């Protein structure tokens, strides 16, 4: 077993042994759109590991667009009675005859690079896809969970932590905002369908740390790993001062399942932890500290500070309040340092 396989197996078991309200899922069918994405794949692994350990008879239906990626993620489950692969683009209305109790809608171009390659497709996948899945939920009488994003807050004039009732400025004509605007529209669709007596819940995750993401994805933490694998440095595009909230995958998945089972319909929940915050520079320093066979230098790209829109338009602080989700009984358990080490070890960038 490789280090990556070992970490993935450990994370699946951590999810399966967590204090989620598992009786609420026993014998239920859970549909996961975008299941072969790097975050939702862990929901699949965790649920099926729960079946292995406790015989909960949860049926998992993994809706994926790419057959090749789906077989890479889930080849070990082929032939299992509790797993079904459903291959289709989420932008096409779903036709399925079987029973569905819960829908976790996670299909979205989430990678920083992928979002802007085709911004129209990013918007369409998030909005049309969400509408299709909500209509599917209405048809099946299923409860619905949207994986939104903390990006929906935009620029807030007030200082302090983001709470769920806040809404900041988002310029809809700025293509850099296409992902955030699409997630806002998807949340509005959830609010509309909740009026039809469909249980619609929303989670707004902070940045999630885990293995399985493509090294060219473009997100901050994977950029750092890619740079350290290529050489002996991390290059910061800005001044390193913006603060972000991070969360390890096992805490993220248990938070999602908690909102699915315990959350109130028509409401959103920040999925974050005040204990896992760091500036960009602090994150780089933590990650560099786990490279023990050589010295990692942290440098600055001064030109990017004034010319790269990802830097010039970045919000200085993106830190949400976890009060609401903690009121459901959820707790963050994995410290930021351990989250970084496990993620780096997955890519053989650190020893674990």
Rounded Rg: 19 Å
Strand order in the sheet with the most strands? 3-2-1-4-5-6-10
Q: Using DSSP, what is the number of strands?
A: 13
Helix content: 25-40%
Overall mean pLDDT: 92
Strand content: 15-25%
Structural class: alpha/beta
Distance between the termini: 14 Å
Instruction: Characterize the overall form.
Output: globular
Order of helices and strands: HEHEHEEHHEHEEHEEHEEHEHHEHH
| Poorly predicted residue ranges | none
Q: Tell me the major beta sheet.
A: 7 strands, parallel
| Count of helix runs | 13
Care to describe what's here?
The protein has helices at 3-16, 40-54, 67-74, 112-117, 119-140, 178-194, 220-230, 249-262, 280-289, 304-307, 309-312, 323-326, 336-346, and strands at 29-33, 59-64, 83-87, 102-105, 143-147, 200-205, 207-209, 233-236, 243-248, 267-271, 277-279, 297-300, 317-318. The protein has 352 residues and is of the alpha/beta class. The model has no long low-confidence stretch (mean pLDDT 92).
Key traits:
352 residues; alpha/beta; 7-stranded parallel beta sheet; 13 helices; 13 strands; 40% helix
Summarize the structure.
The chain has helices spanning 3-16, 40-54, 67-74, 112-117, 119-140, 178-194, 220-230, 249-262, 280-289, 304-307, 309-312, 323-326, 336-346; strands at residues 29-33, 59-64, 83-87, 102-105, 143-147, 200-205, 207-209, 233-236, 243-248, 267-271, 277-279, 297-300, 317-318. With 352 residues, the protein is an alpha/beta fold. A 7-stranded parallel sheet has the order 3-2-1-4-5-6-10, sandwiched between helices. Strands 7, 9, 11 and 13 form a 4-stranded mixed sheet that branches.
């Amino acid at each position: 077993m490789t280090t990556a396989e070992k970490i993935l197996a450990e994370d699946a078991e951590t999810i399966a042994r967590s204090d989620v309200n598992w009786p609420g899922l026993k014998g239920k069918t859970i549909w996961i759109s975008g299941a072969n994405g790097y975050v939702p794949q862990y929901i699949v692994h965790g649920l099926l590991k729960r079946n292995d350990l406790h015989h909960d008879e949860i049926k998992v239906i993994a809706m994926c667009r790419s057959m090749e990626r789906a077989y890479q993620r889930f080849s070990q489950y082929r032939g299992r009675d509790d797993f079904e692969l459903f291959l289709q683009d989420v932008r096409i209305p779903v036709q399925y005859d079987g029973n569905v109790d819960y829908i976790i809608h996670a299909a979205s171009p989430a990678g920083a690079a992928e979002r802007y390659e085709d911004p129209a497709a990013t918007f369409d996948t998030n909005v049309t896809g969400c509408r299709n899945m909500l209509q599917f939920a209405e048809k099946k009488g299923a409860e619905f969970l949207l994986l939104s994003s903390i990006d929906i807050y935009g620029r807030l004039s007030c200082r302090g932590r983001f709470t769920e009732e806040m809404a900041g400025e988002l310029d809809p004509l700025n293509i850099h905002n296409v992902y955030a605007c699409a997630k806002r529209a998807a949340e509005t669709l959830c609010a509309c369908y909740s009026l039809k007596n469909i249980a619609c819940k929303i989670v707004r995750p902070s940045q999630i740390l885990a293995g399985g993401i493509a090294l060219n994805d473009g997100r901050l933490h994977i950029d750092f790993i890619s740079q350290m694998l290529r050489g002996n440095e991390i290059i910061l595009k800005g001044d390193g001062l913006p603060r972000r909230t991070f969360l390890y995958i096992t805490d993220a998945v248990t938070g999602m399942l908690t909102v699915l089972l315990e959350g109130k319909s028509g409401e959103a929940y920040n999925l974050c932890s005040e204990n896992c915050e760091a500036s960009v520079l602090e994150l780089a320093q933590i990650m560099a500290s786990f490279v023990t066979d050589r010295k990692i230098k942290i440098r600055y790209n001064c030109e990017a500070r004034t010319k790269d829109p990802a830097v010039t338009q970045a919000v200085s602080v993106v830190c949400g309040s976890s009060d609401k989700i903690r009121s459901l009984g959820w707790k963050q358990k994995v410290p930021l340092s351990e989250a970084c080490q496990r993620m780096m070890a997955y890519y053989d960038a650190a020893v674990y």
